[in-house]
């Protein structure tokens, strides 16, 4: 059975189940004060994200976004988050002008690094959003407990066990959605089965399918994809002890990319995870938590199986395997809580480009060493072991002080930098010597120190504020450190980024309105610059001094059934060494929505807008981009207490536009701008049982 047929079958089953639920419905719930999500703003069956001055919290099951969207597209609907697009799937998120491992994506304690050197499969696209009970997005660096890096922000997907002593039973949620543009379909569900005596099983499954979409000018954009995911958790909770074993699987097939010289016939991501904790009454020691994980990614991309072949056939099978864990002790000393821990992660990546003319296709697909052309990731291993301590002290009823300190030891190596015996591929060391005068025969080591000070004050009357100063360090990833193509070369001696970030914010909550505002300055030593100007036709990496600064605003107002919400974000990035703008910085952007609802229904409209961006690096940005304003319609109706129908139209006036952010590809590092989808009618149904 194809993924498309599975998706259609799931949608049909959900519709039939919902019709039977209608016969039993006695009425609809009313909750006019429910907060609203920024794009798909709906009624009481949908619970919008909770925004603060430094981040957002939401439940993916009740956010209201169509289920055929991937995780990156879902996150882009939140305040302060942009994304770059190569196709219909695999959107790569950007927070405060930063991306890649400048943003930590932590899925119930596990970390997964994608298998594509250019992020066809970024972590947000394969993370198990369908299994998360809560997602917390933090903008900026606000805790030392989230592992190494994370200088731009952190996305945490969290899973919750049933309450201790919960009655035996089975609960769940199912959903189905469809979009007119690209014939997009999505269906899935999740369940919790409490078995008694503290034992439980949780699971989820999801399927997505889409054809190529049309942009606002009616042009077909290569963007089709098929994706299935699912997982199971076996757990126990009770008597101050909890433990859970997770298995997650994600499979993407026939993913097309307009913004790349290749497509991806397959990407398989598997995650195993064991996590748990025990409550203690041992003086100041209150709890110990621990987790271990293994994530494995097998990715294939080529330029011939899903598109007409031109010139040389090329295929790149890759692997990205990560294992790690964490142990944390939690203490209470009077008005101070403390967390002391150690974490570790080790990521190994291997990517070999095979090539030849059409007659060599069987040898290319058999990974014949004679057809190996480049060791793009030459068996790169990056190990990071961290120690951290973080305290939070209530100084008095109105003031709180947070302090944190972190040390990471990093070891990076490339086992195939000198080439692989019997393989025809060029040795990456030759490229490293040509452009940097070095080799990668010896491991590189770093000792990175970070920390933070954050002061929070309650002004009273629903108004709070904070001011923070942090230092965070990000080591180079496998591509920046070791990429081994003739026209795209990593730098084994690249220094880690050091971010010194100052931010302050205020949050006001009243009965009928709320406002959050944040400003930040991020001074970066040794910013890792992807450089396309020093060597003609070759992309390299070097360290520069840089600065990023910006503001973030969000607010809402309500009067009876009328609600108004909005947000905006602005980042300015500057290469201080070259006195030039940083590339790929999103412009001033935001959203504004107005809706009206009573009881079970809500209708509204929204404007998604961005200013033009003319602060560009001509060597990296495709061009300056004009501003745009796109209008959406949305609505929802709570059919019963357990069934909700949502519908809408995105890009109502079918405008042709592209965001400023773009992506390069594994064949040619030049950036390509992909236009956004044109007018799209969408319909979704969700049910709880």
From TrEMBL:
Membrane topology, from the record: Multi-pass membrane protein
Pfam families per record: Plug (PF07715), TonB_dep_Rec_b-barrel (PF00593)
Subcellular location: Cell outer membrane
Keyword Iron-sulfur among record annotations: no
InterPro entries the UniProt entry points to: Beta-barrel_TonB (IPR000531), Beta-barrel_TonB_sf (IPR036942), Plug_dom (IPR012910), Plug_dom_sf (IPR037066), TonB-dep_rcpt-like (IPR039426)
Family matches, as Gene3D superfamilies: TonB-dependent receptor, beta-barrel domain (2.40.170.20), TonB-dependent receptor, plug domain (2.170.130.10)
Listed GO CC annotations: cell outer membrane
Record GO terms (molecular function): siderophore uptake transmembrane transporter activity
Family, similarity comment: Belongs to the TonB-dependent receptor family.
Protein name: TonB-dependent copper receptor
Organism: Fuscovulum blasticum DSM 2131
